[in-house]
UniProtKB/TrEMBL annotation:
It is an enzyme of class 1 (oxidoreductase). Its cofactor is pyridoxal 5'-phosphate. This is Glycine dehydrogenase (decarboxylating). CDD domains: GDC-P (cd00613). The gene is gcvP. One of its GO terms (molecular function) is pyridoxal phosphate binding.
């Protein structure tokens, strides 16, 4: 390899952990002579890919950054006044640098292990408090995916509350005409499979009777108008109808909040709280509800509990509602959130405080009022009587105004009937009004106007002017200097375990390196400032990324078409199933509604199937974890007339390449079904095999797993779907699109699954970078090393632990399951005890009790080197010796390091120590831990206490003061 070839492939050796020497040692430990031999023993030859992937060669990091800069300049930065739920914002630099660009925040995992996640849990509790207090509703979750899907979640929550399964008495859902178009689009998509009848109309004249279960209104509405919904809400409540209100957090600092108007749910986007536009995402949606919905509210809720020492501790509350547990009984398939973006929004509120937020809102409103008056003085009709940041201007013909605005690099929103919408935001300055007004006047008379009096906002009606206070808690009234804010962020950061500290070996979750060169461009103006509904000629850079990434993903999966719209893995499942459903309908077989799902499948699979209007039939698994072919044949034949398809994961959820997978796909196709493949384990396929080769028809891809988008403490995620040619016409569309252009574009108007045409478009850059810098050889190498690392760890652990589900060579795929169930009988130790004890060794636990209760599932990924793998294996082997001491009655069965784990600095350093083992054994069980100790910030959290005493907002000020 020449010096220049080596330079182009440098990223491969940055991304992949083991070096050549380590690789040879690991192969020797496994008992094979080469990486090729290991892969041949692991991946069935019948499904192996022939030849190389048709992807570009690798680029060096420097070369890539130059390339992506050139691509970014294809995007044209205009001042965006389009609005429609997306607004430019100012991300405070202290938040941009210390959270958005900080791997200690963006490489965290979902906070299932609360003891090493107290920092982000506190930040998410702050977020919930912001949402709860601004909406005046008592219960808020820790974010959803976007405003449109949040509205759909409200609809289904209301529907399930008032209708019994298989007995729908109230089928109708009212949606006010002046709701954002993309929200109406997604609501309609979600309603049809469930048998919900969406009725659009004018809330002022609507007559809702007992056949309705819910209603949705927008506040301020799609035209920017502020409407008083009190009477409407009272009237529909009298008929038992629930009301959801889509709203705006910034506007609510000045407006009477939904809870005070009587709404049952408030929802919307927190994007304008410091989160960049990014051509549509990722952005955190908010969702708040009345207490009566606490058992059915979708998504994650952070709650206050106590730890084993009685100290206040935070954790994810009501975890039994998690959809992977409820499976087909789930009321939502939400599996992720937008945690990173919710943390940014929460910090924005902390930094500005209630008065700062009010000042921003008043500036926006004042400029909008000034603009409206200036245009009216020039003879234009502003049709809104009351408004916050958006006005609608009536003109004779739109085109001349549009041409002049675009010459000044301004984007307005153009409605039908010659109406122009103008939405101002935090970034709008008094001088910006000159350019806006200039679009409505000739070029002869000079533009002049005066800013309205700051103390007089005539555009908000007195009955809807907010009088209630909000954000009185000290956390929102203390950290307003950058010094204090920087230290607060760092204080929380120090309580959290992330990839900065060590390996996160979560099976199925693929916590690999999120390289800095992949992440850096996201902050660049030409990517971050783009509005998702900007004219297509202004977003040629994004169009290039969409087209190229779609092509790469189709090549990798051996499919023909791709939709990049789904903005989470579960959304990808849902979109894939809707695509199958639409295909059957187009063929006159709408009755095909049975989906076969193996018992080993991810819990979101059956949840997504039910949301898609399908009936779930469970297929058994064999002792070795394989799908039971005989049971599959029986179930497929029994349901042949109505078979829609099957959902499988490959390699299986048990971490094995099933040699029978092609038999499975043939059986399903034989009976007219389609094969959906869950892409959770694509990290074991890329370059070696592909869903299309195996016989699948559609597959979703977790870009936040295989393709290096970071998990962000529980989100963002992306779940594009790739399909065979016959399914391509049925991919998701979008209300803003028609006659989709490039591969990856929505194929038609309507039937969207996400608010923006390309979901969380800005983070597509990360996966594009991953493929371009690794190149065709590197992406395959990543798969091979994922297999190597997993099998090396298996080889080191198999003599001391029982390993479940290996193939006939004793090999696993990219992950494997360690059985901890025997220790419950031998030492009264359970899997959770091992998980918590690993924290004392400086590790995040592997996946706990999934897919098999009482086990841990380990996935090291290709990015960890041999030293880190050994450190983890040494820790597990040390824990095994601790269990042996219990088994041999040398350590107490009830009072031992595992049952008491994790051990905090406070407990280890306290004056009192009455444990039957030493402080050193508690905190430093291996000598090397002393060099770089990560301390859990709380002892083991009491989940039961937290659920029985549900508190999901910051504690009252007096409690905070006592603790301080």
């Amino acid at each position: 390899m020449s010096l220049f070839e080596a330079q182009s492939k440098e990223f491969q050796f940055r991304h992949i952990g083991p070096n050549e020497s380590q690789t040879n040692d690991m192969l020797k430990t496994i008992g094979v002579s080469s990486l090729e031999e290991l892969v041949n023993r692991t991946v069935p030859p019948a499904i192996r890919m022939e030849g190389d992937l048709k992807l570009p060669p690798a680029m060096s990091e420097a070369e890539y950054l130059n390339h992506i800069k050139e691509v970014s300049l294809k995007n044209q930065i205009y001042k965006n006044y389009i609005g429609q739920g997306y607004y430019d914002t100012i991300t405070p630099s202290v938040i941009l640098r210390n959270i958005f660009e900080n791997p200690a925040w963006y490489t965290q995992y979902t906070p299932y292990q609360a003891e090493i996640a107290q920092g982000r849990l506190e930040s998410l509790l702050n977020y919930q408090t912001v949402v709860s207090e601004l909406t005046a509703l008592p219960l808020a979750n820790a974010s959803l995916l976007d405003e449109a899907t949040a509205a759909a979640e409200a609809m289904t929550m209301f529907f399930n509350t008032l209708n019994k399964e298989h007995h729908i008495q109230r089928p109708k859902f009212f949606v006010d005409n002046d709701t954002f178009p993309q929200t109406k689009d997604v609501v309609l998509t979600r309603a049809v499979p469930l048998g919900i009848e969406v009725v659009f109309g004018d809330y002022q004249s609507a007559q809702l009777d007992e056949t309705y279960f819910g209603a949705l209104v927008q506040y301020p509405n799609d035209k920017g108008s502020i409407e008083d919904y009190r009477e409407f809400i009272k009237n529909v409540h009298d008929t038992g109808v629930f009301v959801a209100m889509a709203t705006d957090l910034l506007a609510l600092t000045l407006l009477v909040p939904p809870g005070e108007l009587g709404a049952d749910v408030a929802l919307g986007s927190a994007q304008r709280f410091g989160v960049p536009l990014g051509y549509g995402g990722p952005h955190a949606a908010f969702f708040a509800a009345k207490e009566e919905f606490k058992r059915s509210i979708p998504g994650r809720i952070i709650g206050v509990s106590v730890d084993a020492q009685g100290n206040r501790a935070l954790r994810m509350a009501l975890q039994t509602r998690e959809q992977h547990i409820k499976r087909e009984k789930a009321t939502s398939n939400i599996c992720t959130a937008q945690a990173l973006l919710a943390n940014m929004a929460a910090m924005y509120a902390v930094y500005h405080g209630p008065e700062g937020l009010r000042r921003i809102a008043r500036r926006v409103a004042l400029l909008t009022q000034t603009l409206a008056n200036a245009l009216e003085e020039r003879g234009y009709d502003v049709i809104n009587e009351y408004f916050f940041d958006t006005i609608l201007v009536k003109v004779g013909e739109v085109n001349p105004f549009r041409q002049k605005a675009e010459r000044q690099r301004l984007n307005f929103r153009y409605y039908s009937n010659n109406l122009i919408g103008i939405s101002l935001d935090e970034t709008t300055t008094p001088s910006d009004l000159f350019d806006i007004i200039n679009s409505f006047v000739n070029d002869v008379d000079p533009v002049a106007y005066e800013i309205e009096h700051e103390d007089q906002l005539d555009i908000i009606p007195a009955p809807l002017s907010r009088t209630s206070t909000f954000l009185k808690h000290p956390v929102f009234n203390k950290y307003h200097s950058e010094t204090l804010m920087m230290r607060y962020i760092r204080t929380l950061e120090n309580k959290d375990f992330s990839l900065v500290h060590g390996m996160i070996p979560l099976g199925s979750c693929t916590m690999k390196l999120n390289a800095a060169s992949e992440m850096i461009p996201l902050s660049w103006t030409h990517w971050s400032k783009m509005h998702p509904f900007a004219p297509v000629e202004q977003v040629e850079g994004y169009s290039f990324i969409v087209k190229e990434l779609s092509r790469y993903l189709c090549e990798i999966t051996a499919f023909d078409a791709c939709s990049l719209q789904p903005n989470s893995g579960a959304q990808g499942e849902y979109a894939g199933l809707l695509t199958i459903k639409a295909f059957h309908k187009a063929n006159g077989e709408e009755h095909r509604d049975v989906m076969l799902i193996p018992i080993s499948a991810h819990g979101t699979n059956p949840a997504s199937a039910v949301m898609s209007g399908m009936k779930v039939v469970v297929v058994k698994a064999l002792e070795n974890g394989y799908i039971d072919i005989e049971d599959l044949k029986v179930k497929a034949e029994q349901n042949a007339a109505n078979l829609a398809g099957i959902m499988i994961t490959y390699p299986s959820t048990y971490g094995v390449y099933e040699e029978t997978v092609t038999d499975i796909t043939k059986i399903v196709h034989q009976y007219g079904g389609q094969v959906y493949m869950d892409g959770a384990n694509m990290n074991a396929q890329v370059g070696l095999t592909a869903p299309g080769l195996i016989g699948a028809d559609v597959c979703h891809l977790n870009l936040h797993k295989t393709f290096a988008i970071p998990h962000g403490g529980g989100g963002p995620g992306m779940g594009p779907i790739c399909v065979k040619k016959h399914l391509a016409p049925h991919l998701p569309g979008h209300v803003t699109m028609a006659n989709g252009a490039a591969n990856g574009s929505p194929s038609r108007a309507g039937h969207a699954v996400s608010a923006a045409p390309y979901g969380s478009a800005s983070i597509l850059l990360i996966s594009y970078a991953y493929i371009r810098m690794l190149g065709k050889d590197g992406v395959k190498m990543a798969t091979e090393y994922a297999i190597l690392n997993a099998n090396y760890m298996l080889a080191r652990l198999k003599d001391q632990y029982d390993i479940l589900y290996t193939n006939h060579f004793g090999a696993c795929a990219h992950e494997f399951i360690v059985d901890l169930r025997p220790f419950k009988k031998s030492a009264e130790i359970e899997a959770v005890d091992v998980a918590k004890r690993l924290m004392d060794y400086g590790f995040h636990a592997p996946t706990l009790s999934f897919p098999v209760p009482g086990t841990i599932m380990i996935e090291p990924t290709e990015s960890e080197d041999k030293d880190e793998l050994d450190r983890f294996c040494d820790s597990l082997l040390s824990i095994r010796r601790e269990i042996a001491l219990i088994e041999e009655n040398q350590v107490d069965r009830k009072d031992n390091p595992l049952r008491n784990a994790p051990h905090t600095m406070f407990t280890v350093c306290s004056d009192e120590w009455k444990k039957p083992y030493s402080r050193e054994m508690a905190a430093f069980p291996l000598k090397e831990i002393k060099e770089n100790k990560f301390w859990p910030s709380v002892s083991r959290v009491n989940d039961t206490y937290g659920d029985r005493n549900l508190i999901c907002v910051c504690p009252p000020t007096e409690e905070y003061a006592v603790q301080a």
